[in-house]
Amino acid sequence: MGFQLPAIFGCLQVASLFAYTVGFFLVATLASVIGWLDFVQFSILLFGAALTAISVVNGSIRLDRPVVFLTALIVAAFAIQLAAFDRWDDITLYKIAVVLAAHLAVINYFALWRESPRISRLLTYGLSGVEVIIIGQIAASFLFLVGEVHIFRTGQIRAQGWIGDTAALVLVFFVIYHTLTERFVRAFVAWLALLMMGGKAALDLAVLSVPIAATASARPARVLIGGILAAATAVILFTNVVSRLPDLIDGDRIPPKEIPQISPVEGIGTSTWSRLSPDQQMFLRLVRNTGVLRLASIGAGYVLFVDHPLTGAGYGLTADRVQEAARVDVFGLQECCGITPTHFEFINGIHNHVVRLAAEMGLPGIAIAVALAAFVVVRASRLYVKRRRHACAAAGDGLDDMATAGAIWAILFVLFHQTGAWLLPGNIQFHWLTLMMGIISMWLPETRRCPRPVAPSSGDAAVVGCVHK
Predict the structure, then answer these.
(1) Domain range spanning residue 93?
(2) Residue 460 located in a structural domain
(3) For residue range 142-173, what is the model confidence (pLDDT) as tens digits?
């Protein structure tokens, strides 16, 4: 057994992940692109990979077969990319380095982290601090129109603009965590912040998470009802009160609401369409346009994959190449949905993680996507199943609650969040997945067990929690 790295290195990893999360939201709030933020993320990921490499070399940790296989697969896939294409610019090489480090960091953090009181305390207080800071930034962005704010023609406001599609996934963890631990007021606040950001994919995952969190609790009915009430209360309050506050605070900065003339969405009758409010018409048109363009981008990915099945079209595809492939229109969208070739100019990338990797890296890219998803889901599911099997109380060990919430978040993210590219440099989503896998790794070692609840003997409630052997 070699020299084991001190726990302080694990604390530095946790602190760096928290700091990057706060920094990412700060960039959105200040509406400024800070170039060094990507470099900071890259440095953090390399830091985790370096620590794991040192630990493996000196024998203080051993990687199991799935970790070794996944690591070899990722390295080989990107080696094929570097060998198959002889023309690389600095930006593309940098993207490859970032995505390679990001993939390796997920499994490296999982292998490296070990339970320690310092890390547990840092996670407990750090998560609370991060939550308060980022929700404060979101509220400032929404109420005072600070930073990257998008205002629709109907006056609807989206805090932190389109960056919210990426950053809102962080808030889903807090919805799961507070629902699981029956802190429904804090879950309500997290829901309210999600509504301010308007991230559709994040809201969908948050809705899915409530019943799943209930199944992992010792009191599923209480958690399910409380979670639904927290979400419903947030929607009602946001719709009737919060959404009107920016206009009261600083109405001069919000353009007058327009009553746009919107042509009916295909499939909806004229009489039905005329009964909808302008906001409802705008929403349906936005959903339709967004869905059609995303489908067109997936079609573009299919075209590129078919043309280059073994190596892909090269990592880091430009928007021009995607738009050119989209014009092939493999799904016949111009005929069925009434779009024109001009619409394809609004496609800025392939809006599906697996299809994007397939188009850019071919079959090796698909292998990476499937293997990484399997790795995350299997590890997270092990924790989730143990939690359900032993019915740990939601008010028990704080690390167990965090790990269970992280497992639910990781499973939902990997299986259902396919609407964007996880691996763009600076993307907070993959960074947060790294944090979740680190938390999960602290719960799974066999030195921890979760006993079945003991029936009360003298009228006292049974005490259930995860303990050490």
Answers:
(1) 7-243+362-446
(2) no
(3) 888 877 777 766 667 888 776 777 788 899 99
